[in-house]
Amino acid sequence: MIEIKSLSKKYRTTQALSGVEFSLPQGEIVGLFGENGAGKTTLMKCVLGLLKYSGTITLDGEPITRKNIARLSFATSEHSFFPNLTPKAHGEFYGEHFPNYNDRRFTGLMEFFELPMKKSLRSFSSGQKNQFEVIMALSQGADYILMDEPFAGNDIFNREDFYKMLMGILEPTETVLLSTHLIEEVSGFISRALLLQRGIIVDDVYIMDLEEQGNDLVSFVKEKYDYRADRVSRAIESIAGEE
After folding, report:
1. Could you tell me which of 201, 176, 199 has the C-alpha nearest to residue 189?
2. Rounded mean pLDDT of 23-27?
């Protein structure tokens, strides 16, 4: 289990995270939602030890260090692969450095997305690069897979196929923390939603509980963030009225 307690992060004068607390047991698919600048990427980078922070983050009661960092993987649209290498070379590299690397999953996902094994990643399109980033995160053999807007540059058909594939290949012990703005698309396969606003967790809800209450995730999120349905019409009216 990953446990986060009193997590705070400040960039000079900007408080990116403030007193964040939650836990991630194994075997959950969790959506991390929030507006731009809410702190989603910062949160993930703190968990991975890429940023300094105050508070505590532990994995099964131990700090996350080089000894256990292989139990976490990260897929980001910023990309973390070696652009001059081929996917085949990446697979070989992961096989040498990660004891639980799953070559069968890697090969199967490469075939599913129809990505070439022997071309350098530099030649891939943006969408293909993001697909490969996700493939490597899922194939590393990690217990906790963190994904930060991994579907950028992919069309809706690729995204829908990927959701179905993800549900079919994940082991019961694997946990996914997925940061995305595509709330409606992912609402059908996540089990839990974390809502982040201005660096604070404003809600932590299980989708099953929402459904039992006769609510859906999109409506819940809009209500929680005080979304105004008339925002666009008011703006148009105001702008048009000035002409």
Report:
1. 176
2. 94
Per-chain mean pLDDT for the chain: 89
Residue 124's alpha-carbon distances to 115, 116, 151, 165, in angstroms, are: 9, 9, 15, 22
C-alpha angle 116-121-124 in degrees, rounded to nearest 5: 70
More confident residue, 160 or 216: 216
What's the pLDDT tens digit per position in 47-81?
Answer: 999 999 999 999 999 999 999 999 999 998 777 78
The whole-angstrom separation of Cα 1 and Cα 58 is 8
222, two tokens? 């809009």
Question: Phi and psi dihedrals of 153, rounded to 5?
Answer: 85, 5
| DSSP label at residue 191 | S
Structure tokens at 41: 């990427």
* 3-class DSSP state of 148: strand
Segment 207-215 shows an average pLDDT of: 92
Please tell me the distance from the alpha carbon of residue 98 to that of residue 218, in angstroms, as a whole number. Answer: 38
Go through 7-31 and write b for each residue having 16 or more CB atoms within 10 A of its CB, e for each that does not. Answer: bebeeeeeebbbebebebeeebbbb
Q: 227 and 210 in contact (C-beta within 8 Å)?
A: no
Q: Which residues pair with 50 in a beta bridge?
A: none
Q: How many residues does the chain have?
A: 243
Q: What global pTM score does this model have?
A: 0.87
**Per-residue pLDDT at 164:** 82
CA 29 to chain centre: 10
Q: For residues 203 and 191, what is the distance between their CA atoms, to the nearest angstrom?
A: 14
Q: Is 199 helix (H, G, I), strand (E, B) or coil?
A: coil
